Amino acid sequence: MTREQLWDIIGNIDDRFIAEAAQYDPKQRSRSPERIGVMSKKRLITFALAAALILALGVTAYAIGMGIHRQRQAEMRESFGMEGSSAPAYEEYDVPEENTSGVTLLSAINNGGSQRIIVNVAPVTRDDLALTQHPVMFSINGGQTWEQAMTAGDENSAYDAESQTLTVSVMFGTDGKQPGEEITVLFNINGSLDLGSLVVKITDPDTRLVQLSEPIVLTNPVTEKPVTLIGMELRGNQAIWMLETEDAAYFYSDHSSDSEADAKLRQDNIVTWINWLDEQFRATKLYFADGSSCSFNGHEFSDVDGNLVRPHVDYDRLAIDVSQVVSIEMNGQTYKIR
Amino acid sequence: MEDRQIINLFYERSEQAIEELDRKYGAAVRKTAANILRRTQDVEECTNDTWLGVWNTIPPQNPNSLISYVCRIARNLASVKYRSNTARKRNGQYDLVLDELAECIPSTVDVESELEAKELSAAVNRFLDTLGYEDRFCFVRRYWYADSVSEIAEQINGNSRRISVRLFRTRERLYRYLKEEGLLE
Fold first, then answer.
1. Do the Cβ atoms of A173 and B69 come within 8 Å?
2. Taking a C-beta distance cutoff of 8 angstroms, is the pair A195, A187 a contact?
3. Does B14 touch chain A (CB under 8 A)?
């Protein structure tokens, strides 16, 4: 075997390992390895459903006396840490007690720029699942483009064999659309079996712009210049941090004209910067009026305007009630917000 | 922007899709290419070819993991470019990675058919599932992304020497695993 063949063999490892290694996550360190016998394609978790929404269904056995629709809603509340907390951005719908065929809307969340809905689809057979990992297709407002709906979790947790029901997540952009506006979503299975349509209203995004009682001044790990947290745009599903730094252009501007050495140095510095940012997010908590708190996960991306860097950072749960946030704890210090 | 939104932009054939993809994963793609190719121009060319590759394949593709999808294209294009450059200078990093890999899958192993190569890939996948998170992270960063040992050490806030030892042990385990699976003589 040539070295190139060897390289290609390693090149064919599963997507989930590549995505997992894209960024180091110290929280994963203590987890035990998943030991399995044979890894089939169908067995793969829909890893890339973005950290923002991997539906860990099946956390608790709710099945006794509960239809599949209510069971899924209960599982989502639990897996998203939403039990006992209100979050206006997350809307749950009345569902039939009994199992039904067709499409049943379970819940929705407006991400501010996009709308996500979670639905149960039935009947989906084992054969449908065997054909593709994501057999449910959808299109918006009669459009000709059909997309695959993301299966909510892996096959074992998202599929209920008894009722032949699959739980899926659908997301579409809301630019130019107003809350309350109706969107028709068409569904089919594997591009052929028509499942009918669903009319959903764009839900309200829950947003609040907050300032800190005093700006938090941090130190850029690369340049050692100040990085000042001046506030946050709290959205129902994520917070957009507002960081002022003189180094914004260095990290985020186009640098294709760099020499090879400069490009390498800048690339290394960007990695340091991004990792440092994620450390700051993970070391920060939001406190609510009732004394409870929530943490942050890493950030997805940042938008930049001059010296203002705005990382979009997910909460450790699907959604929060932004009106109830009263303070921020960072590096052991608490800051009131207004 | 979330991956799903970016993919939607590709489906709408909006050129903004490339901008958003570059903004979100440009650094990861450039790093993947730069670990294999030495010249900045080659890296940029490879990056642009990656965007073109994504543009030409989505739709109909609808990847579950966008970052894996783009980095995989970048890795393939970069290694093809590296191999096709007959006047190439040896890239210490990339060649070192290949040398290390050859320790656990010796060159005496014959993979004449695509099926045999697939079997080996599947075995490597199963092996990775037996590893703890950090060992797997180090392995994938080293042998898929071709990171240097010091880069891996920096990412996990560790020590280069320890990472080297860790990788050595993982390679040994892989060798034993493949032997037990009957894939090596």
1. no
2. yes
3. no
CB contact under 8 A, A33 and B130: yes
The structure's pTM equals 0.49
CATH of the domain at B68: 1.10.1740.10
CB-based contact, B13 to chain A, within 8 Å: no
Chain B residue with CA closest to A304: the answer is B23
Q: Are residues B38 and B106 in the same domain?
A: no
What letter represents residue B127's amino acid? F
Q: Are A189 and A128 in contact (CB under 8 A)?
A: yes
Looking at B84, B100, B128, the residue that finishes a domain is B84
Distance (Å) from the C-alpha of residue B163 to the closest C-alpha of chain A?
A: 14
CA torsion through residues A194, A195, A196, A202, sign: negative
CA A202/CA A105 separation, integer angstroms? 13
Q: How far apart are CA A13 and CA B101, in angstroms?
A: 14
Rounded to 5°, angle at Cα A155 from B119 and B11: 85
For residue B60, cis peptide bond before it (omega within 30 degrees of 0): yes
Task: List, as ranges, residues 165-184 from B with C-beta within 8 Å of A.
Answer: none
Q: How far is B117 from chain A (nearest CA, A)?
A: 6
| Residue A136 to residue A190: CA distance in whole angstroms | 6
State how far Cα B62 lies from the chain centre: 20
Number of domains in chain B: 2
Domain boundaries, chain A: 39-201, 207-336
Closest-CA distance of chain A to residue B39, Å: 7
CATH code at position B126: 1.10.10.10
Helix (H, G, I), strand (E, B) or coil at A24: coil
Question: Which of A24, A145, A170 should one mutate to test binding to chain B, selecting the residue with the greatest count of B CBs within 10 A?
Answer: A24
pLDDT in tens, chain A (338 residues): 677 778 888 888 888 899 989 888 876 654 433 322 222 222 222 222 222 333 444 445 444 568 999 998 888 877 666 666 677 778 889 999 999 989 999 998 887 777 889 999 999 988 887 766 678 888 888 777 777 787 776 666 788 989 999 998 888 878 788 888 999 999 988 777 888 889 998 888 788 999 988 899 999 999 999 999 999 999 888 899 999 999 998 888 766 677 777 877 876 787 788 778 888 998 899 999 989 898 987 776 778 888 999 988 888 877 888 999 999 999 889 999 88
Query: What is the domain class of A39-201 according to CATH?
Result: mainly beta
